[in-house]
């Protein structure tokens, strides 16, 4: 009886595998866009969140630009910092044409496990089912999320550099990017995946506000990772912006430390093969300011130990890790509510850390952004053509210069 069973079942199994093989081979899910989730804050930080405390019976419309394109799309929604379940009553993704209009016929209702409504537990994320939506490289998408009940906005990305619109009621089928309220943050939206060409791969830039785009023009995709994505689009390389304004290497700040979020923002992302690490300036600059008034300067040894932990994690996961030197910041934020951001001891620590980054050979490669952006007449300051005006963040042309200064062959 056993032999008879095998004679009939094996051909069926082989036939099924052969039939499934091409379909399975076509699935190459790649992270093509990300916005690192952050917890909202109260008065413990000197900068306001600039978002409502909660929304009710409202739709959030969020536009974004992908890196690598694909034939199918999945959307990741995060309730990482929520204190209650996040109820999504309806959701849609659509392609955006020139201007702010949805491409006719491109809107696709998002389902989660086959259901149009999903409840996401506190601390969890949920990935939508795939939808057939062809999106080109550097194409724009619109994600709309309907919140039917009162929902505290506890999980967000503060400095999104893209206007999000909030409409009353269920407006997921809206054909234009508009709404009654506007915010410059990402709300609950954390990742976009595409079914990409088989030779595609992703690169994460793990950074702070300089990577996040502070100083660049709103709604213009002029962060330095955006310009780098343009250079790499023809190579099927997704550049993922893992910047968090106020992020630090060693300690939590306006978001989790690099040590705490490396797994979430780098190691767990489908398709990631390399990471560029551009962190440390807030570890150096925050002590003695309104951000950390009583904190001492970290030691050089402690900063190096933090870098080495991330280097070790990357290599254990066969991910290439590239270090960058820290940009000059003399005069940073003068005249703002943030005082004492720069000092001689902080400058000495920056210089010492940059020297270690350049010479230690601890990283697989190094990008010398300090040399690229500093004023030759005063190396502790940004070159005026690079500076956005606050002496800390590059402007649009500075971001372009940084991206164009990257030697692409060092990235993979």
TrEMBL record:
<feature type="signal peptide">
    <location>
        <begin position="1"/>
        <end position="25"/>
    </location>
</feature>
<dbReference type="Pfam" id="PF13472">
    <property type="entry name" value="Lipase_GDSL_2"/>
</dbReference>
<dbReference type="InterPro" id="IPR036514">
    <property type="entry name" value="SGNH_hydro_sf"/>
</dbReference>
<dbReference type="GO" id="GO:0016788">
    <property type="term" value="F:hydrolase activity, acting on ester bonds"/>
</dbReference>
<keyword id="KW-0732">Signal</keyword>
<dbReference type="InterPro" id="IPR053140">
    <property type="entry name" value="GDSL_Rv0518-like"/>
</dbReference>
<feature type="domain" description="SGNH hydrolase-type esterase">
    <location>
        <begin position="205"/>
        <end position="401"/>
    </location>
</feature>
<dbReference type="InterPro" id="IPR013830">
    <property type="entry name" value="SGNH_hydro"/>
</dbReference>
<protein>
    <submittedName>
        <fullName>Secreted protein</fullName>
    </submittedName>
</protein>
């Amino acid at each position: 009886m056993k032999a008879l069973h095998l004679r009939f079942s094996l051909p069926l199994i082989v036939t099924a595998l052969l039939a499934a093989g091409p379909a399975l081979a076509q699935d190459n899910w790649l992270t093509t866009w990300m916005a690192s989730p952050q917890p909202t804050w109260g008065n413990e930080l000197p900068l306001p969140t600039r978002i409502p405390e909660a929304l009710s019976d409202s739709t959030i419309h969020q536009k974004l630009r992908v890196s690598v394109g694909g034939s199918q799309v999945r959307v990741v929604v995060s309730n990482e910092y929520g204190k209650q379940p996040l109820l999504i009553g309806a959701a849609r993704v659509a392609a955006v044409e020139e201007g702010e209009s949805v491409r006719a016929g491109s809107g696709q209702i998002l389902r989660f496990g086959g259901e149009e409504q999903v409840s996401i537990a506190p601390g969890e994320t949920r990935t939508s089912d795939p939808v057939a939506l062809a999106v080109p490289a550097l194409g724009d998408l619109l994600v709309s999320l309907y919140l039917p009940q009162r929902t505290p906005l506890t999980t967000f990305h503060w400095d999104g550099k893209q206007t999000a619109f909030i409409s009353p009621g269920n407006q997921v089928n809206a054909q234009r990017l508009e709404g009654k309220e506007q915010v410059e943050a990402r709300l609950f939206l954390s990742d976009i995946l595409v079914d990409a060409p088989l030779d595609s791969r992703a690169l994460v830039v793990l950074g702070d506000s300089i990577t996040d785009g502070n100083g660049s023009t709103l709604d213009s995709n002029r962060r330095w990772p955006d310009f780098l994505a343009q250079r790499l689009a023809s190579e099927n390389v997704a550049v993922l912006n893992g910047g968090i304004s106020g992020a630090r290497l060693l300690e939590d700040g306006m978001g989790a430390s690099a040590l705490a979020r490396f797994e979430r923002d780098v190691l767990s992302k489908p398709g990631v093969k390399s990471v560029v690490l551009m962190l440390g300036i807030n570890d150096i600059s925050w002590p003695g300011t309104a951000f950390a008034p009583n904190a001492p300067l970290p030691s050089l040894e402690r900063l190096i130990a933090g870098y080495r932990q991330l280097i070790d994690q990357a290599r254990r996961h066969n991910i290439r890790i590239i270090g960058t030197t820290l940009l000059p910041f003399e005069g940073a934020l003068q005249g703002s509510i943030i005082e004492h951001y720069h000092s001689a001891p902080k400058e000495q620590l920056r210089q010492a850390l940059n020297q270690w980054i350049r010479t230690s050979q601890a990283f697989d490669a190094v990008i010398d952004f300090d040399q690229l952006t500093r004023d030759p007449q005063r190396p502790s300051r940004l070159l005026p053509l690079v500076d956005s005006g606050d002496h800390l963040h590059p402007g649009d042309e500075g971001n372009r210069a940084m991206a164009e200064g990257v030697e692409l062959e060092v990235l993979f």
